[in-house]
Structure formats: structure tokens, C-alpha cells
Task: inverse folding
């Protein structure tokens, strides 16, 4: 069977490379040294120091897919550049690249302790909110208001924002 001809008269030659999904599946069987070489071939730079096997496999697979199917949109590239710039400056940025105050992510089981007046208040972070005085709350600000009797920024009250807890 003759090779198909492109619109400009050039012949389209089928590739001898295995399909992309097979190449990606084969990454799982490669030794780490071969994964590092594959990373270097795909990205043109050495892999990050200390990169684990899973990261190498995901990075290589993404790069191969991007080369064949197309990479990120220009809008996404701009968003990532803004996030990277904010990260370098030591703070979070929003979708427009404006800096935002950052608070640590609270994992379930985290205990927040705050002394107010002559009482010690302990809040436990749960999957769905916060536990304080055997009651479930959805907001640290609501707890801070209950403790102080006035409107407060809950994360700031519990010392999760920059500056003093007021």
C-alpha cells in the first residue's frame, strides 16, 4: 500500500516509535538511572536533585504528552508565572498576580491554643471545621467572636496570620 501524500505533495511516513500510551506504561519498568536519562532527553536539563521515581515518571509523561498534544495555554502560563513570582517574594498571589496574606493549611487534628483573659482556649481542627468546648464550628472567626464578645479575624486571633494575635 503506498504512503499517503500530504497536501503539499510530501509523503507522510509512519513513525516506528511505539504509541504514546505504551511509552508511558514502559516508564514503570525502567531503573531510576534510565528514568534520569529519559528526563534529560525529554526536558533537555538534568532532573531535579533528589527527585523520586514517581516525580520523574510524571514529568517525563507530561512532557511527552505536551510535545505531541500541545502544552499549556498562554493564560495558564501567565497564571503560573504570577504564582512563581509571588512564591519567590514569600507570599501567595491571587489569579491576577496580586499578593495575598497567606495562612498555613490546617490539617485535621491540629490544635490551636489561645489564652484570653484568665482562660485557655483550645480549638481542634476537624475534617469539616473546628471543635471548641465540645461544639462544632465552621469558622475560626465565629469562635474568636464567642471568646472575645467582639468581631475578630479568627485566623489572626489564633496567630495564623502575620503580626500579633490581638
Result:
Amino acid at each position: 500500500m503506498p504512503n499517503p501524500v500530504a497536501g503539499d505533495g510530501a509523503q507522510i511516513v509512519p513513525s516506528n516509535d511505539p504509541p504514546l500510551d505504551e511509552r508511558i506504561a514502559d516508564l514503570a519498568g525502567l531503573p531510576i538511572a534510565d528514568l534520569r536519562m529519559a528526563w534529560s532527553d525529554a526536558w533537555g536539563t538534568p532532573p531535579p536533585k533528589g527527585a523520586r521515581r514517581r516525580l520523574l515518571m510524571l514529568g517525563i509523561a507530561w512532557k511527552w504528552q505536551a510535545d505531541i498534544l500541545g502544552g499549556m495555554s498562554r493564560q495558564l502560563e501567565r497564571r503560573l508565572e504570577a504564582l512563581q513570582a509571588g512564591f519567590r517574594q514569600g507570599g501567595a498571589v491571587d489569579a491576577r498576580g496580586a499578593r495575598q496574606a497567606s495562612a498555613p493549611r490546617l490539617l485535621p487534628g491540629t490544635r490551636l491554643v489561645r489564652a484570653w483573659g484568665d482562660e485557655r482556649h483550645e480549638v481542634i481542627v476537624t475534617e469539616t471545621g473546628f471543635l471548641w468546648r465540645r461544639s462544632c464550628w465552621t469558622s475560626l472567626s465565629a469562635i474568636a467572636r464567642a471568646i472575645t464578645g467582639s468581631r475578630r479575624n479568627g485566623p489572626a486571633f489564633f496567630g495564623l496570620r502575620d503580626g500579633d494575635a490581638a
